[in-house]
Design brief:
alpha+beta; Endonuclease, Chain A; globular
Length: 130
């Protein structure tokens, strides 16, 4: 078995070239909340864990992903309050969790106004991992 192929299937869950292209565009146009969160987690700042931003996973692009923890962090703007978007978000979360990933969602406001509480919630998740 080709180890690199297996790694990429695990890491990206079979994401297509189009999803990789979308991820690149999203990295170039981050929101203020995404930028603030990225500065808080890049360079393994949370308990030594590596987070990736705008990471391709299957048919989705996760805002942030830690492969070692199988953890997806989603940062939701105001449009996520829309009923239709909430249904799409629930499906996305279910799809990702079906693949063995954990999804934690935060709002832009939580990131911008309560970043330390967000970091504490992530650390709490890390501390519950076996």
């Amino acid at each position: 078995m080709d180890k690199s192929k297996n790694h990429s299937e695990n890491m990206w869950k079979g994401a297509s070239p189009q999803i990789f292209s979308n991820a690149k565009k999203l990295r170039e146009t981050q929101t203020e909340a995404e930028e603030k969160f990225w500065l808080a987690v890049k360079d393994n700042k949370i308990d030594g864990y590596k987070f990736r931003r705008q990471h391709p996973l299957s048919i989705y692009v996760a805002d942030f992903y830690c492969h070692a923890l199988k953890l997806v962090i989603e940062i939701d703007g105001g449009y996520h309050l829309d009923e239709e978007q909430q249904l799409l978000d629930k499906k996305r979360t279910a799809d990702l969790e079906f693949q063995g990933l954990k999804v934690i969602r935060f709002t832009n406001e939580e990131i911008l106004l309560k970043l330390q509480e967000v970091i504490d919630k992530i650390k709490s998740f890390i501390n519950t991992k076996p």
